[in-house]
Amino acid sequence: MTVTPVPVLSGWEAETLTQADIVAEIAALASHDAVEGAPQTRTNYPPYRSSILRHPTKELRYADPETIELWSPCFSERDVHPLEADLTLGAHHGWNSQVTGQPIGERITVSGRVLDGDGRPVVGQLVEVWQANAAGRYVHKNEQHDAPIDPNFAGIGRCITGSDGSYWFQTIKPGPYPWGNHRNAWRPAHIHFSFFGREFTQRLITQMYFPGDPLFALDPIYHSISDLQDRNALVAAYDHELSVPEHSLGFRWDVVLSGPNRTWMEEA
Ligand SMILES: [Fe+2]
Asked: What's the rounded mean pLDDT across residues 5-28?
């Protein structure tokens, strides 16, 4: 099957392009991959319109990892305060020092382990998160979504991995939000993650999703990862052992920074 090249998005097209159009394009690419095989690395995924202009057009260049390792980032417990892992403490993040209330939304605990390609824990490394609030609104000057800002929620946090490679955040569940890919386009709820790893070649920036989201089938960013197993690796699991009685629901998400089982990186 031949996939017809998709024209570059214009403002006019975003208004008229429907969700059904996008789903059809996603299905056509999946059919193509089923016959021809999916590329291992796909940076240009036309149903995700802005990837057409933003994807690399030159061949990847391999760098010398030994040289890179000389410049590997180094963090310690002193760099990050433990309270920065609790996104429900808005005042602590300097977001609004006048407010000490709790953010609105479903309080959740997100935790997991960061591993290298050999299954070894990645210890003492920086993990950063950013996310929309429960209404699907980011605190950002370019934010377009007409949903309320929560004065008690900045949506940013960070922590250092423990001796077993574990990370931990307390936050509220982000809401889905609309975006400009096509008419009535909505992103599944997600939390953005950045992992520094032990060396620059392990640097990983990606998104964590929540199980059972009805928007998965419609989202071209989610589908830009061609392999189902790789897509599933970005979806956290509900973990009742992580849930805190009378307080929060627990989600577990483990991450692999290198090797063939590496967690997929977002292309945006
Ligand atoms: Fe986002």
From this structure: 80
Tokens for 139?
A: 């605190």
241 alpha carbon to ligand 1 midpoint, in Å?
Answer: 27
Range of the domain at 220: 11-256
This prediction has a pTM of 0.89
Give me the active site residues, please.
138, 177, 187, 190, 192
| 62 phi/psi in degrees, rounded to 5 | -90, 130
DSSP 3-state assignment of 33?
helix
In this predicted structure, the answer to whether residue 114 has a pLDDT above a threshold of 60 is: yes
Contact 170, 186 (CB under 8 A): no
Task: Judge contact between 235 and 241, C-beta under 8 A.
Answer: no
46 CA to middle of ligand 1, Å?
19
Helix (H) or strand (E) segment spanning residue 131: strand 126-131
Number of domains in the chain: 1
- Residue 163 token pair: 């001796």
- Calpha distance 167→129 (Å, rounded): 11
Going from the Cα of 189 to the center of ligand 1, the distance in angstroms, rounded, reads 8
- Spacing, Cα 190 to ligand 1 middle (Å): 6
267 within a domain of the structure (yes/no): no
> Is 78 among the domain residues?
yes
